[in-house]
Amino acid sequence: MKIRKSISEGYECKVFIYQNKKEEYTVISIPDLNWSIQFEDDLYGESLEEHLVHSLFNLVDESLARELALRINQWIIEM
Q1: How many CB atoms lie within 10 A of CB 43?
Q2: What pTM was computed for the model?
Q3: Which of 26, 29, 51, 78 could form a disulfide with 36 if both were Cys (CB 3.0 to 4.6 A apart)?
Q4: Which bin fits 4, alpha (ψ -120 to 50), beta or left (φ > 0)?
Q5: What are the C-alpha distances in Å from 8 to residues 23, 25, 40, 56, 63?
């Protein structure tokens, strides 16, 4: 499990990322937002980013949702 800190425009949170390579899925959690999501590892790139934006948009404004989704997507690519 990787733990990353996202700092942006006055909002700071920890993002927990767990990748299960054997079963090919990833779980992302942001406890400060009481939010988590699980998805298959074949979802990546722009598709993943849009999926994350739609899920996060229910909890935060669109600009923050897009920023978090972009960062999470980048962190997953680096893993």
Answers
A1: 15
A2: 0.86
A3: 29
A4: beta
A5: 33, 27, 28, 15, 11
